[in-house]
Model the fold of this input.
Amino acid sequence: MSTRKKLIVVGGGASGFFCGVNAAQMNPMLDVVILEKTNKLLSKVKVSGGGRCNVTHYSEAVSDMIEAYPRGKNFMKKSLYRFSSQDTQNWFLLRGVQLKVESDGRMFPESDKSQSVIDCLMHEAEKYKVEIKLQTEVFQIKKMTDGFDLEVKYGVKEVEVIHADFICIATGGHSKESGFQWLKQMGIDIEPPVPSLFTFNILDSKLHQLMGVASPDSMLKIPKLKLQERGPVLITHWGLSGPAILKMSSRAAKELNELDYAFDVSLNWAPEYHESAMLELIKTKRIEIARQLVGNKNPLDIPGRLWNYLLEKSTIKPDISWANIPSAASNLLSKNICNDVYSVKGKTTFKEEFVTAGGIKIESIHQATLESKLIPGLYFAGEVLNVDGITGGYNFQHAWSSGWIVAEDITTKMSEVKS
Ligand SMILES: Cc1cc2nc3c(=O)[nH]c(=O)nc-3n(C[C@H](O)[C@H](O)[C@H](O)COP(=O)(O)OP(=O)(O)OC[C@H]3O[C@@H](n4cnc5c(N)ncnc54)[C@H](O)[C@@H]3O)c2cc1C
Done:
């Protein structure tokens, strides 16, 4: 009697491919099929990281890495112990794709081309005879006594039922809860999706004139949520972007959605100082560099254009000397440097990378295996889970780790069948 089994992976993205090719390599007795509803495979890998694919983030310690996951931090702790950023690097290296690290920890293929990652995964799929079906959408899964029946649509109408012993759902994120409806019908718990990784829209033409100015170190606060984030901030022609803004958008994804993206942000452009310490500094400078012009002598690490804007906002002409700054204007300047408040109205998708927060509740799966607690044999990998990271390669790392864990557990189950 044949002991061959079939794994159907739903979704031809990073997590689905990683699960499929590893499961096929680990199990010669497993037939692996990837079903993809569009006519493109690995489409996000292709465009990711501006076409370079930020494959993972360099990290020595799991304890550091997990801080980058606002949702699923404890889940990722277990996950990364099983398949870490180092494992990702080794996996790709063994298959001819060397990764390089940039100064901020992001890792890219040496070629700087996402195509290298795609070619590698496609080659593995071919090598281990993973069958791939494009334009094949799964819209219903039925649990049977001997596995599953999947109802699939080819193109628009042709419907077929495919049988599987194991299923890995790797369908990625959906911006609307309705995208999870077919999974909800199976009794699977969903955390409603909200966008993550976006920039802040601010209607302020004077701020917009500073487009392109990057503050290397700022403290960003959302007083209403009592949240703060420190790091680089970029001024754009629609508002604010940069690492600190994106991190905040990720950490507060749910709360900002509840506020309908209308809230105040306060920026401290010189985060080493609070307002009263800044006033003291200005008083000292009025004596120390009394004769120098304020526009020429910026005592802080604030970009020149931003400094002149802050002076103007504080009614200080750049061609007056430090000694001549009126005391009321000194107060205003220290306030504008340390507590520069703007009203955010709306968000803009960060084109380089965006993800959805929400998805399959991690409480509904066995965290060691990623198998559904409700439906044995049904697994989940990647962004479909309520796990997401900040920018920097963390989201792909989750896709690789989860895909790997599913492949490993199916291997364990296969060996149990044999013995
Ligand atoms: C523009 C952009 C750039 C990014 N850059 C980076 C980056 O550099 N680094 C990083 O870490 N992260 C990045 N991300 C995030 C990262 O791409 C995702 O987190 C990751 O691709 C998730 O992989 P996944 O396989 O879980 O889902 P996906 O890549 O979304 O793949 C899911 C697949 O399932 C298919 N599918 C859905 N439903 C069905 C169905 N019912 N039947 C059959 N198929 C179905 C979809 O068509 C899709 O192909 C970026 C995201 C975007 C949008």
About this structure: Residues 10-16, 35-38, 43-44, 47-49, 53-54, 137-138, 170-172, 352-355, 382-384, 393-396, 399 surround flavin-adenine dinucleotide (CB under 6 Å). The first helix runs from residue 14 to 26. The CA atoms of residues 202 and 414 lie 55 Å apart. The first strand starts at residue 5 and ends at 10.
